[in-house]
Prior knowledge:
The N and C termini lie far apart (43 Å). By secondary structure, the protein is of the alpha/beta class. The chain has one domain (22-258): Rossmann fold (3-Layer(aba) Sandwich). It has helices spanning 65-73, 116-126, 131-144, 160-172, 190-205, 217-223, 250-258; strands at 25-36, 39-50, 54-58, 80-85, 88-89, 101-105, 178-182, 209-213, 226-230, 234-239.
Amino acid sequence: MVAPQSPNDMNPAAQKPSSKRSAAPVVVMKDAGRSFARRIVLRDLNVTVSEGELVGIVGPNGGGKSTLLLLMSGLLRPTVGSVTVCGIEAHALSLTSAGLVGLVTARPGLYPLLTGRENLEHFGGLFGLTPEQVGAKAEPLCKALELTTGFDERVGRWSTGMQQKLSLIRALLLSPKLLLFDEPTANLDPIASGVLYAELRRRADEGLACALVTHELSAAEAVCDRVLLVDAEVKREVEFTARRTPPTGPLLEAWQEAIGTRC
C-alpha cells in the first residue's frame, strides 16, 4: 500500500531523475495550433513528451492548458500543424486506438447510478476486457490508491475524492502509453492529493509518458521533470535536475518573468 504523502514529503535522496529526454517520444507536436472560430487559442507548439517523463503544464486561466491536453489526447484536432501519439496522427485516434491514452480530469465522468465495480466493468468492456480481467487489473490500483471499500455502492453516493480515484483507476485499466491529467486534485483533500501525485510520479518512473495540467506550482516543482509555462504558446520551459523539497519557487519566478500578471 502506498503511504499517504504530499509532494513535499518525497525523499530528497531519490530525487535526481534519470535522463529522460533521450527516451522514445510518445507525443510529438510540430508547429501545432488550435483556433475556435477566429480566436487563436494555441499557436506554434513544438512539444514532445517521452517515455518515463512527467511534464507539467501551468499557466493563467484561459491560456490554453486544457486545449493543449485535448490535442495530446486526440479528442481535439489541431487547426494547423500536426500532433502524433505513438506515431499515430492524433485526430485519427479511434475509440479502439484511444486505449493508448488515459485521461483524468477534474470531473470524474462516471455513471452515478452504477456501482464502482459496474463503472469499471462498463468502461473496461468498451475495450474488450472481461469482468474478471477488469477485477485483476483494478485490485492492485485500488490498494495503491487506498480505495478498497464501497465498490458495490452507487458511485453517486461516494465522496468526490473517491470518485476521482476511481477515475484514475479507469484511466490505468488499459495500461496506456500516455497518461494525461487536467487539474486532477481540484476536489481532493491534501492527503488524497499526495497519494495521487505519488502514484503519478511512480507511473512516470516506471516508463509511462505523463502530462499534468495544474495550478499548484509547488506540486509541479515537486513531481515533474520539466514544466511548460503556457499562455497561447509555450512561453518558457523549466527543467529540473532535482525535484525540490520543499519547493524553492523557480516556477513562480519564471511565471512572473514570462507571463506577468493577467486578470
